[in-house]
Amino acid sequence: MSDEAKQMAARAAVELVQEGMRLGIGTGSTAAHFIRLLAQRVNAGLSVTGVATSEQSAELCTRLGIPLTNLDETPTLDLAVDGADEFDGALNLIKGGGGALLREKIVAGAAKRFVVIADASKQVAVLGAFPLPVEIIPMARQPLSLRLAELGAVATLRQTADGEPFRSDENHWILDCAFGPTITDPPGLARTLSTLPGVVEHGLFCGMTERVLLGSDDQAIVITV
pLDDT digits over 124-176, tens only? Predict the structure, then answer.
């Protein structure tokens, strides 16, 4: 999908930002467009504070002049904006392709409103084509791989380019889990995964999203449930 579509979605999200807001700021290529467009408004005089969902996004915000805070100082946010790897008609999401799912879910959960920005390539009828990221404690890898296999998933440890385990900003490992062609019950699977010892967080975001701003080359449309 074109970069213009991502920019259109990000532009629509920036229009939701009002003076004095406390913002959750997402991670990924579409979120980076949001950060750059938000910085233009901040540099023009808009006063906001942000909580970034990754070290990568925090660095970009700092470089572009967006003031940052944290959830200790600002535990409730007005609006969180982030991308998604997939979303379905019920606005269930798969997130975590960039490895920031834990912080992304914490920030989204702290926000009064959570808005997703995406292009048409992320819209699916049923979740599951994108492998579901599951963030884990390293010592739990093998027991969890067996348990996930019982649930129908093939779990692959995410690795860096040099073959080392990828580590999240919180120093955890990530299993990328292929649940066959589809995930038929995202809320049910989310509840099950959350009960497994060693799972820190998973990339299913169910019942959290207010709307998706879906960008195309010339507009952004609003999708709600």
Answer: 999 999 999 999 999 999 999 999 999 999 999 999 999 999 999 999 999 99
In sequence order, the β-bridge partners of residue 214 are 118, 221
In a domain, 19, yes or no: yes
Over pLDDT 90: what percentage of the chain?
Answer: 98
- 0.85 cut: is pTM over it? yes
Strands 154-157 and 173-178: antiparallel
Residue 51 lies in a domain: yes
pLDDT, mean of residues 37-56: 98
Angle among Cα 37, 42, 45 to the nearest 5 degrees reads 135
139 and 176 inside one domain: yes
Question: Which of 135, 125, 117 has its CA nearest to residue 221?
Answer: 117
- The angle formed by the CA atoms of residues 203, 204 and 210, to the nearest 5 degrees, is 115
- Phi first, then psi: give them for residue 133, nearest 5 degrees: -75, 135
Backbone angles phi, psi at 149, to 5 degrees: -65, -35
Residue whose C-alpha is closest to residue 203's, from 130, 149, 118: 130
Task: Tokens for 99, please give them.
Answer: 């490895």
Establish whether 104 is a catalytic residue. Answer: yes
User: For residue 147, what is the domain's CATH number?
Assistant: 3.30.70.260
pLDDT at 2 over 80: no
- The residues that bridge with 218 in the sheet, in sequence order, are none
- Per-residue pLDDT, 1: 52
Say how many C-beta atoms besides its own lie within 10 A of residue 78's C-beta.
18
How, if at all, do strands 79-82 and 114-119 pair?
Answer: parallel
Q: Which of 86, 104, 135, 201 is catalytic?
A: 104
